[in-house]
Amino acid sequence: MAPLFPTMNSFQSLFCSSFRLPWSVASAVLLLGATAAGIQDQDPDPLGQVVLKQDGRAYTARQVLEAATGDPEHQYIRNLVQDSQQRSLYLRSPMFLDQVHQYSRWLLVQAAGLPEITREQLESEARLWAKDRQKDLPAQAVLLNHRLEISWRSSILATLQNEFSEPVLRQHMLSSVPEFFYDIQISWLRLPLIDARKGAALPVAERQKRYQELAEVAARLQSGKLSWEQAVDKYALHEGEKKRKGLVGLVRRSMTDKFEEPLLRHTFDGLGYKNPDSHILRGPIMGQRWVYLVRVESLVQRMVPVLQRVRDQVDRSLREKMLQAKLRELETEVERQVLAPIFLD
Question: Is CATH 3.10.50.40 what the domain over 178-304 is classified as, yes or no?
């Protein structure tokens, strides 16, 4: 009995005679078709979620992780592919959200065509970065977890001059004397950017909502429509903070082991060289864990302001200020949409 459907050999004969192709060509075409069908049947990449759109291009979680680890076959990437629970936890984590932001900045610097950096420059910045954050870590350990951030930072810093003159350093020192010679007393209002129960970063819309909420509080405080005490009573989430009226206490610029670095950088920036006549409001300031509104209340001098005592700190601070200015310049020139965190369940 003849088969109900053509066999492969009979189908090849029909295909070859219909299009007058050699047998070998017909076989190759059929094989390609079968291969394409097989590809379509494959499961999608477990790390194929789009997490960033920038300059008309979409970037996936896999691309971020490959750049962050420097190795497409890194064991951690393999673990995430194989373990759905671990993958779900990671893609919604604050750590992954930070990696997406660092990847975005790294792309900006790459597109800007800044000079290539050497391994020595990369390791030097890694050591300084760790020192800035009160971490006693070798360069390799820093690069293991912060490769992208150190890379784009090193590229921008490499464009700056090797040395600054004493007048330039002195001018920067005088722009914010408390950064180097004072402790400052602050109070704050802060809203979390992390769901502590789930260990997940909040969705983008919720993060923006909380930032805007504190921006509106700041506007009402500055206009006199709201007092600080009223703001704390209404918006502070912890009873202890309400009782203390948001008081944090004395803070030093170097306390990066206790406070988020963006909080300290923005709070101490541009405080001048004279004691303020009234409280100074700073923020909202976006950290990784919180968004802050800070009130600078008083300054306590620790030492006489002399440049030579803090020359290295002033130099590093000036370079950081110039780095942040260049980063803002690059960010204003690009259209970007961060889609992380990713919630798989």
Answer: yes
The secondary element (H helix, E strand) that includes residue 63 is helix 61-69
Query: Do the beta carbons of residue 61 and residue 342 sit within 8 Å?
Result: yes
pLDDT in tens, 130-143: 999 999 999 999 99
Q: 3-class DSSP state for residue 226?
A: coil
Distance CA 337, CA 344 (A): 19
Q: What are phi and psi of 127, to 5 degrees?
A: -65, -40
Q: Where are the domains of the chain?
A: 1-32, 50-162+328-338, 178-304
Q: Report how many helices (DSSP H) and strands (DSSP E) the chain contains, helices first.
A: 15, 9
Q: How far apart are CA 191 and CA 284, in angstroms?
A: 10
> Helices marked H in 133-237 — which ranges?
139-157, 166-175, 178-181, 204-223, 228-235
Q: What is the pLDDT of residues 33-63, one digit of tens each?
A: 444 444 444 568 999 999 999 999 999 999 9
Bridge partners of 185, per DSSP, are: 250, 298
Is the pTM above the cut of 0.70? yes
